[in-house]
Write a structure and sequence with these properties.
Elements: H1 3-14, H2 18-23, H3 33-39, E1 41-43, H4 50-70, H5 74-80, H6 87-92, H7 98-106, E2 121-126, E3 134-136, E4 141-146, H8 148-152, H9 155-165
Parallel strand pairs: 1-2, 2-4
Antiparallel strand pairs: 3-4
Length: about 170
């Protein structure tokens, strides 16, 4: 270890509460949609690539889902699409916040004071066989599937299913 690194480590160890301050989440209340979108950077295909348009459609639907969580209209939106919700889904929807999506993708409900490493990102996976988003918290990656179902259908229910299957409610 270099001299400076060991000095920093010694300083952190000797300063009561310093490690907690450095590695705990930022204070400031609830995480909103804009913070989630700013944190989860989409990795789009290059401009002009035929995949890019479909990725942008999926991203727009993802943002609409987050906004419907924040403004409390998710259940109404899902029911307007003639989707029959289960009682469990109906009971979970009012509890959802944008923090749940951040927790699903990164394992943290708020941004740590020193930021995320690696930087969180949204990866678009072109796969006709999958529609329910997945995540790898060790790499801070959210995988959104791009196919006819997700671009032409209702992505919101797939996102809800992913959050419910991700056991995030025991952690937030």
């Amino acid at each position: 270890m270099t001299t400076i690194s060991s000095q920093v480590l010694d300083f952190i160890r000797s300063s009561k509460g310093m490690a907690h301050h450095l590695f705990s989440c930022k204070k400031g209340g609830k995480v909103n949609v804009q913070q989630v979108i700013k944190t989860l950077k989409p990795a789009f295909s290059p401009q002009g690539n035929q995949r890019r348009v479909k990725e942008e459609i999926v991203m727009a639907k993802f943002i609409a889902f987050l906004k419907s969580i924040e403004d409390g209209t998710l259940q109404e939106c899902l029911e307007d699409s003639d989707l029959k919700l289960t009682e469990q889904e109906k009971s979970i929807i009012p509890l959802l916040t944008p923090s749940h999506m951040l927790l699903f993708a990164t394992g943290a409900a708020n941004t740590p004071s020193i930021g995320f490493d690696p930087k969180p990102m949204i990866t678009f996976v072109h796969d006709e066989g999958k529609s329910i988003p997945s995540a790898q918290t060790c790499s801070n990656a959210l995988y959104l599937y791009v196919n006819d179902k997700t671009t032409n259908g209702d992505l919101s229910h797939d996102l809800l299913t992913a959050l419910m299957n991700g056991s995030i409610f025991s952690k937030l």
